[in-house]
Every structure is written in C-alpha cells, then in structure tokens.
Amino acid sequence: NGGSVLAMVGKECVAIACDTRFGIQAQTVATDFSKVFRITEKTFVGFPGLASDTQTMLNKLRFRLKLYSLDEDREMQPKTVSNLLQTLLYEKRFGPFFVEPVVAGLDKNNKPFISAMDLIGAPLLAEDFVLSGTSSEALYGMCETLYRPNMEPDELFEIVSQCLLSSVNRDALSGWGAIVHIITPTGITTRRLKGRQD
C-alpha cells in the first residue's frame, strides 16, 4: 500500500517520521493513514508495507508487550522490542508479513536506539538513521547528505522533515503529508506536516 518510515538519532533524542498516504497501487484511498505507533512510553514502531499486515503486526506486538509487562512488571526496552519483532517476523518466514518495521526509542538511560528489519526479521542496527518503505532510495540520499551527529531536538525535527518531504515527492506511492515524532527524556513532541497533494 506504499508509504515510507524514517528514524534518526540526535543528542539524547530520537525522531521517527512517516508519510500519511494509504493507496492501492496508483489509486490513493486515504490521506491520513499513520504508519508509526507509540507502543511504550518512549518507544515507537513504524510499519510501512501492506496495511492489513501493519494492523496484524501491531496487534500481535501489543499483545506480547502486555504479557511482558504482566510477567516482568516493567516496560519493554526498545532493543527488546526490536528483538521481539524480529522473532515474530522470522517465525512466519515461509509466508511472511509484508511489513518492514522501524523501531525508535530511548532506553532507561535515555540512550537513543534505532533499528530496522526486512520482512523476515533480518535486523539493521545503526547509530545515525534507519529507513524503510517505497521511497528508500531517495531517503538514503537525503539522509546521508543532511545528517549530522549530536543534533538538538529542534534541529533534528527540521532535518527529518526535510529528508522525508523531499524524498516522498520523488515517489508516487508515498506522500500526502507527514507525521514526525521527536522523543526526548522529558517528553514526546508530535507534529503534522503538509506535503504535496498530488
């Protein structure tokens, strides 16, 4: 169904952003479909790909998170969320879910964590940025050009927004605006961006 997700690391903060288009090939069905979901206090997960599998994976993940919090009496850390998603995807590797998850969050020491994986759960762990979705080629070019280490939250928001908006403009299957979440030790800021409406 198209769509792109991007996560980027700053100085004691992390950003995750997605576009808002939901389409069936070239036909746009909805323009307010978020692919990024808050699953713990400081962890977000993005699911670009097939929309039905996005919802299935989100439900499976939330179910496992509730079991974990009942068993362990604590919140799951971003790295553990990433490992859990890898397991959920790999156990269905012969008939996979068509999603490529991106995980972003702060751990208990407020250290940023980001990861991405393919549809069978092969992980990509990075110190700078990870991305997934239909406009990934354009996103890689923009992120490699604009990324700088140790960005403050406001600067990180600006860079992530520029990367995402200019990349989805070069992709017919994603766009129609964006949602950006900035995760800091003190809280979460969510902003909606307008994009080209074509």
Record the strand order, biggest sheet. 10-1-2-11-12
Class derived from helix and strand content: alpha+beta
Query: Roughly how much helix do the residues carry, as a percent range?
Result: 25-40%
Alpha-carbon distance between the termini?
Answer: 16 Å
Rounded radius of gyration (Å): 16 Å
SSE sequence, one letter per element: EEEEEEHHEEEEHHEE
What's the story with the biggest beta sheet?
A: 5 strands, antiparallel
User: How many individual β-strands?
Assistant: 12
Helix and strand topology:
Blueprint: E1 4-9, E2 14-19, E3 22-24, E4 27-30, E5 36-40, E6 43-46, H1 51-72, H2 78-90, E7 102-106, E8 112-117, E9 123-125, E10 129-133, H3 136-146, H4 153-168, E11 178-184, E12 187-193
Antiparallel strand pairs: 1-2, 1-10, 2-11, 3-4, 5-6, 6-7, 7-8, 8-9, 11-12
Helix pairs in contact: 1-2, 3-4
Task: Give the tags.
198 residues; alpha+beta; five-stranded antiparallel sheet; 31% strand; globular
Short description:
The chain contains four helices and twelve strands, in the order ββββββααββββααββ.
Written overview of the protein:
This protein is an alpha+beta fold and 198 residues long. It is 31% helix and 31% strand. The chain is built from four helices and twelve strands; from the N terminus they run E-E-E-E-E-E-H-H-E-E-E-E-H-H-E-E. A hairpin with a 5-residue loop joins strand 7 and strand 8 (112-117). The protein starts with a strand and ends in a 5-residue tail after the last strand.
